[in-house]
Structure formats: C-alpha cells, structure tokens
Predict the structure.
Amino acid sequence: MILQALAFYVFAAITVASAAMVVTSRNPVYSVLFLILAFFNAAALFLLIGAEFIAMILVIVYVGAVAVLFLFVVMMLDINLTELREGFLEYFPVGALIGAVLFAELLLGVGIIGSGSTTVAALNAHGPHVAAIDNTRAIGRVLYTQYFYLFQVAGLVLLVAMIGAIVLTLRSRPGVRRQRAGEQINRTKEQAISVVKVPTRGGV
Amino acid sequence: MIVGLENWALARPELFLAAATALLLIYGVVRGEIATAFVSVATAVALLVTAALLFLPYREGTAFASLFIADRLTATMKALVLVGSAVAILMSRAYFEQAKAWRFEYPLVVALATLGMMLMISANDLMALYVGLELQSLALYVIAAFQRDSVRSTEAGVKYFVLGSVASGMLLFGSSLIYGFCGGTAFVQISGALADGRSAEIGVIIGLVFVVAGLAFKVSAVPFHMWTPDVYEGAPTPVTALFAVAPKIAAMSLLVSVLMGPFKPLFAQWQQIIVVASVFSMALGAFAALRQQNIKRLMAYSSIGNVGYVLLGVASGTEKGIQAVVFYLAIYMVMTLGVFATILMMKRRNIMVEEVSDLAGLARSQPMMAFGMLIFMFSLAGIPPLAGFWGKLYIFMAAVEAKLFVPAGLGVLASVVASYYYLRIVKVMYFDEPAEAIDRPSFGVNRVVALVAAFLIAIFSLVPQPLSLIAEAAAKGLFQ
C-alpha cells in the first residue's frame, strides 16, 4: 500500500512538473517532449487505479499520434516563441480565471467542496469498482457483440476519411518517371544491349 | 443471440449498398480514371437496387442489439433518400466533366453518404444516431469541396466542415447529458426513463435542446441556417442538388423519429422549440430570398423556407402531421431535383451560368425549358392545383388540427411572400427582354430528369391520393 502511494506521488509530481515545463520551456520542441512525458506519467496514474485500457490508449493515441503530430508541426513551422509570448501578461488574467474555474469544477466534481448526490465520488458508489474489473476484457466482450454494429460503422467512417483525404489532396503529376519493375524484368538482352563495331579513331 | 442471421436479413439493403460500394471502389482504384463513367452508373443502379431491396421483401423489427430499427417510416424515407442520391449522381456527369473534376470517387462518396443517411434513419440508439450522422456528414464535407481547384468549392467545404463539427459537438454534448440523466442511450431506455414521472428534470431538457439544435443544423432550420446559402452557392451545382434533397430528408426523418420516439413524453417541451424554429425558418426563407440574384443561393433560402413548413408538420406531433411531413418531403424532392436539373442545363456558349437575370427571355429561346421551370416554380410557390399546393395544404391542415393556429397562419403569410420570388423567375423568363440566348440543352440525363420531374408533378397534382396513401402507411409505422 505504501509502495502504491509512493508511486502515485512520484508519477503525479512528474506529471505536474512536466505540464508546467510544457508551458514555460523556451524551445517548442522541448515543450512537446515534456508533453509526451506528462502523457506517459498520466498513463502510469491510470495503471495505478486499474484502468489499464485507458492507460494503453493514452500512450498509443496521445503519444503515438497526437504528440508526434505536434512535433511535426513544431518542427515544420518556424514558430517564434518570443512573438507568441508578447501578449502573455495581457491575457494572463483571463487565462488564470479560466484555470481557476476549471480547478473549482474539478474540486466540486470530486467532492472536496460541497459533496452532493451528483459528485463523481457519489456516482462512483453506484457503479462497479474500476480496479475490480479486467477492463480490456470487458470492453472486448461488448465491442464485437453488443456494439458490433457501431464498430462496423466506425470502420466505414474511417474509410470515408481515407477516401476523402486522397480525393482532396492527391494530384497526379504528369512527367514523373516511375519505376516499372515488370518492364525492367521483361527486358531481354537484345533490347538492352546493342553491339557496335567501333572503327578505329572514329568513336561511336 | 446478438449477432445472428436475422440481424443481417433486416439490414440487407444497407449491407448490399456497403458491399456494392466497396467492390466498385476496388474496381475504380484498379482501373483508374477510365472507369469513372461505369462506376457512376453502377453506383446509381446499386442505389436503386437498394431501394428495391427495402420492399422486396419488406421486413420490420429491430436488429444488432436494438441499435437498428426498420419499419414503414424508415423504409419510405430510405427509399426517398436513395432515389434522390441516385438521380443526383446521374445528373452530375456533364458538370464535373466540364469542370475537369470527373472522378470515380465522387459517386462512391455519395453512396457512402447515402449509407450514412440510411443508418441515421434507422437509428434506435443515440450512439447509432451519432455514427450514422458522422458517416453522412464526413462524406458530405468531402463532396462539398470536391471541385478542389475552385476556391468557392473548397471554401464551401471548409465552412461546412467547421460549422458541421460544432453541430456534432452540440449533439454529442446533449446526448451525454441525456445519457447521464436517463441512464441509457437506447431510445427505449430513454422513453422508459422519461415516462416514469422524472420527465421534467432540467438536465434532460437541456440535453434535448442541444440534440434538437444539432439536428436543426443538419436540416438548416433557423437559427442554425447560416451555413446554407454559402455552402449551396459555393459547392458544385450537382452537389448542391444532392444537399438540397437527400441529407435534408434523412435529417428530417431522424428528427421525427427522435422527437416522436424517445422524447414523446416531453412533447410539451420540444413542441415550443420546433414551432419557433419552424416559424422563423418560414419567415427567413420568404424574406431573405427576395433579393437574391444567384439562383443557387435563392434555392438555398427556398430550402430553408420549405424546412420551416415541414417542421410545422413535425410540431403538430400527430399522425396526420407526420403523414403531411412524408408527403411534403416526397414532393419537395421531385420539385428540387427538377429545378436543379434545369439549372444544370443553363449554359451560355458552353459555360454554366447561374444568375436569375441569365434566364431573361428564356421562354422565347427555349420554350420547353422555360415551361418546365414554370411548373417547378408554380409548384414551389404552392399555387393550386400543383403538387406543392397539396403538400402545403396537408401541412397546414395538420397544424390546424393540432391547434397551432398562429404558426399555421404565419406559414400561410410566409408562403404568400415567398411566392413573389418564385413568380419573379417566371416573370424574368416570360416577360423580360431576352438576354443572350441560353444554349439549346443537349439531350442528356438532366433533360430526362427535368421531364420526369415535371411529369411527376403533373401526376401528383391531378391524383395526389396514391402518394398520400404511401405517406399515411409510413406515418402509421411510427404510431404502432
């Protein structure tokens, strides 16, 4: 138990610290790397409460796709951070207000202030305990049976997304030389080599 | 027994369409651009075969763990959507060939959008509703921007995408609230939770408002109509024809099945929303279109107005009202396809034109085309005895029977105002000094579509009973 608490505090501290570094670091590439660190530690926190499926999804989707996409954007675009920082003090009150509201909502939801019948803690009491279920298996059981239909339609949505991306961006450029393996292999010696008699001092 | 054979049997039309689209996609990718003409015709045929499969044999019930429902109403609406999409695909060839955007993906993306619409219509659960809606929307964003070398088309695509995503977000937010307060996403669970007296809970009502707002965006009802004129004007004309028909019918059917199904116990709450949206849509559709010069933009406002009339039928909440909705949507589809087929024939020296003034003197240069347009415009204006008049009559009768006297009165007034701009087109065609003559339309699909549409309107005008009986049977399906 003490080990679990220790792990929780370590992961939580790293998450918060790296989240702070995302905002404060001067180099945008470092920001993204800290973001990835924050995602990993959040995934570890999910593992601690027994939600291994969300932990894996967090790593695969957020680290594997979203963070890499951010990294691409940051590296491709020449972002000048000092310019971005210019209005920082001006916007700070608004940002702080939004942050405060979100924080208050979290506290209300978890039930630290004013616990009622609709706080997360109270609602949790009705549902099954997260750590008690093998949640990957639980999802797998309904995904391909009860929600089979939705799963298939989601596949169709992805198909449309793929066709759409190709239709709207792919351009066939004329004059591009492509390798045609078939033609290369089918070439015979007669087609490829011609024997020339070179006269002396004449050249080809 | 969750994924069994009976599920597949019930969803046979959808499965057929999905399989046909996948096969044609593979064929198109292998053969390349030369396959476009074949893929386009084959997709349209597949859509029509799907429509036939709905009724041969007709089946009803729920499938896939109750996520999917099929009854008379869904079958009728799906048939309308499928025919609308098939015709829109056939109408698009000449336009896209001229715009050098004639590619085999277009009919396939339309077919996938149509599949999404079918799934929307058959949704029996908030999650099924959402995935169907997203399948439809995503495909429509792509085809709005399909003419990718045109700034206006890409602008229309981006605008539609951004605003559509906001609407999807609202819908999801509402759905999550409803899920939280009702304890389930299935329509049966929701209506069960609402029926046992907890109906007035504020969370459910807020959720309902968000869901209705999301769906109102999809049918472009006021105040969620802002995107419509820009997208309709910017998108390629055949795409606009599709937008004005198929997604409208699908989203309207979805709205009906959501409001009349799980949220029936909250009738008093949602009726106010729908009445307000309906009255404002009718008014805006009438007044904003008065000064439009671009005929596609004019049709956009006209579609907003028509959505207003349909919503009035929904607001009555009775079997008569739903019957009027189905009847109106069927006639609206025929009229709109006819108008767009005519717009697609408007060419001058082989260049597409789309201003109202370009029609000047059309009656003298192309009397047949002008006469077709005249029928469509009179019908849209609701002049008796044309089909559009019967549609409006049924709607207003249903509204009056449901004691919605003021909205029905306002609707009649709006319809009087709207007839001004429909008749203005007739005036421009018949009485204005001729502009440079419009090209003689070559014999093609568009001419056939316009002819058939005019013919159907004539038939519906003289004998509206058969269509009215079909609409009645569909409405009965909902009230069983």
Remarks:
- Chain A is about 70% helix and 0% strand.
- The radius of gyration of chain A is 29 Å.
- Chain A touches chain B through 18 residues (CB under 8 Å).
- Chain A has a mean pLDDT of 85.
